[in-house]
Design a protein that fits this description.
The protein is an alpha+beta fold and about 325 residues long. The protein has one domain: 2,3-Dihydroxybiphenyl 1,2-Dioxygenase, domain 1, CATH 3.10.180.10. It is built from four helices and 18 strands. Strands 2-3-4-1-5-8-7-6 form an eight-stranded mixed sheet. Strands 10-11-13-9-14-17-16-15 form an eight-stranded mixed sheet, with helices on one face. Strands 12-18 form a two-stranded antiparallel sheet. Strand 16 (about 250-255) and strand 17 (about 260-265) form a beta hairpin. The chain is globular.
């Protein structure tokens, strides 16, 4: 093994206050230091997203991965068309900083494993034909009984690339990851090789690199729905969901951020305990986005980092829809 998991991503954004408000509304906890904000999940002591304010427009700065055998990775990076580089100013020089063949920046470092997530005191249960598992209690309580949804951990990121399969080759061969599934050469999903969510880094085809979305695990599908509706009411931009993916099987709700990219709540992701026992599938494009859900927004897979004008849109959300 080489890459062991996803730690965080860093974005450059125009207005730090706007970014902190959005991710705080999404349930993350902010620590602001000068022109940077470190956004973490409540039960974790490290950032999942770092925001750097003052940029002309939103831009993916880098992705941070937990890894081992960094010396071996450095050799493979150069063999596969990437480049080992110096740490950007103001960032940790420890570990390995890598530019992939398309210019996307990664920071690979050793990091202690995160604590296991606690099992919910009331697990999500579904009654079905011939299988009654929830008895003598209601599944849904009055709304006042529910606290605001807070993400448990950063599960995966999806980024844009001009060549999906070349990006897959780089992270699988240089970083030791595995191809989980793909839909032709348009979108692909990669995992780590042991005890992994179905995908950790996903790639979508575009004219250049960029950030599409960060996805955060919540406790159950009800929290996906409640969290998504609550964030949509505050952000007043676009959304996609509630729905369920074919690839990965997770329930989802995406909310558009202030810069045209997306924040995803998810639950019930497929798990790959041992990549050796997994067989990737090449899906048709009809299965690339969802098994079911609302109509896909027209700009869901649009890379606003390539445009000449910054994203700007506000959607009026009817009160009765929230």
């Amino acid at each position: 093994m080489a890459v062991l998991g996803l730690l965080s991503l860093t974005l450059e954004i125009p207005d730090l206050e706007v970014g902190v408000r959005f991710y705080s509304d999404a349930g993350l906890v902010a620590m602001v230091e000068g022109n940077r904000a470190h956004m973490r999940c409540k039960e974790q002591d490290r950032a999942s997203i770092t925001l750097i304010g003052g940029a002309a427009r939103k831009r993916l700065h880098h992705i941070q991965l937990c890894a081992e055998r960094l010396d071996e990775i450095a050799l493979d990076v150069q063999r596969l068309g990437g480049r080992v580089t110096e740490a950007p100013a103001g960032f940790d020089p420890e570990g390995l900083w890598v530019l992939d063949p398309h210019g996307m920046l990664f920071h690979l470092c050793e990091h202690p494993a995160d604590n296991e997530l606690a099992v919910p005191s009331t697990p999500f249960e579904i009654n079905g034909p011939g299988r009654i598992v929830r008895k003598r209690r209601s599944a849904i309580l009055p709304q006042r009984n529910y606290a605001p949804v807070r993400p448990l951990r950063l599960g995966h990121v999806l980024v844009f690339t001009p060549d999906v399969m070349a990006s897959v080759e780089f992270v699988t061969q240089a970083f030791g990851m595995g191809l989980a599934d793909r839909a032709q050469d348009i979108i692909a999903f990669t995992c780590v090789r042991r005890d992994s969510d179905h995908h950790v880094i996903a790639f979508a085809k575009s004219g250049g690199v960029g950030f599409h979305h960060a996805s955060f695990q919540v406790a159950d599908p009800d929290e996906v729905g409640r969290g998504g509706r609550a964030l949509l009411a505050k952000s007043r931009r676009g959304d996609w969901g509630f729905g369920r993916h074919t690839i990965g099987s997770n329930f989802f709700h995406y909310i558009q951020d202030p810069w045209g990219s997306w924040f995803e709540y998810y639950s019930d992701m497929d798990h790959i305990d041992d990549y050796v026992a997994w067989t990737p599938t090449n899906y048709g494009m009809e299965d690339s986005l969802a098994s079911w859900g609302p109509e896909v927004p027209h700009d869901f897979v649009h890379n606003y980092e390539l445009d000449g004008e910054p994203f700007s849109r506000e959607v009026v959300i009817p009160t009765e829809a929230v």
